[in-house]
Amino acid sequence: MDTGVLWQDFQKLLEDSAREYEQVQKELKEMDILLRQSMAEVDKLTRQNTQLMGKIRQMEANLDSYPPRVIHNTYKQAQAVQMRLFMMRGQMEQLQAKQQGMERYARHLRRLMELGEQLRTKGLPSAPVPKMLTGEMMIRIIEAREKERRALARQMHDGPAQALTNLILQAEICEKLFSRDRAKAREELENLKRAANETFQQVRSFIFNLRPMMLDDLGLIPTLRRYAQEFENKSGIKTLFTLTGKERKLASYLEVILFRAIQELLNNVNKHANASQVQIHIDIADDRVTAIVEDNGIGFDTKVLSPSQSPTIASIQENIQAVGGQLQVQSSLGKGTRVTIEVPLIEEGLPET
Questions:
Q1: pLDDT at 276
Q2: Of 20, 166, 271, 324, which has fewest CB within 10 angstroms of its CB?
Q3: Beta-carbon neighbour count of residue 301 at 10 Å?
């Protein structure tokens, strides 16, 4: 392409980026107001829930001292507050995630504009604009994010949402029993407490799978160590984790992509491999990270079934390629499966996930 045309296109991109940056800053201000309001509401609901739970514990200690209507109203009020709190926490987390994404996008735009300013003063470089700044790459990243969000929405519907529906049904059973059979109502309350605790553990697990806070606080390696141990405890599959190279935090988007990839590969092993052992190895070099997940399961014939035909592998491969990496699958019948992921280390350029 002619250098002059390329320069004009790049200047147009910079102008569009400047307008987009201004719009993003406006949306961030609006989002900050919404987030503050959501946080205030969550704090208020948390206090109400604490007070109601204290009152319920007092009632459960001596049910005969409280009129059925008081018990019924207290449980109904607690149920409404907990549902509202659950929804508001979810809304707050969504706003926080969106805010973080927009802030990263704003930093990306600002960096692009700074690069343009440097080019205006120093002239157009001989090398082309880096691929990481192209619209095609941004589209691939956005599509990958949306696929992951749809999958999480399905998990939410099939897991915590269904469990909460069951809790509501149990609460309604208790409500009907209060005025007829207090002994039976007490028994149902015990069942409800057990179910609520199980749901709480399920929601905690879902939140960890959604985005472990350890990933933000400590980084990829400590999070993988913990996840490998939890996977072994839940699946019964011996899970070994090893690391070579210097342990350090990576760019946030790389840590998320690698964690998600290993998470999905382990789920695949648990569901399909019929394995007794799986190994996770991470190698952190100066310019790249290599992740290997290898199991001793039944494997498959790659001549008959291409790895790209697996929805899990295809999804992981798309995400890895979106950040300039590559994925390789080695497998044969009766000899297990080995998946190797290699991604370049880039300090900046791509927006984080």
A1: 95
A2: 271
A3: 9
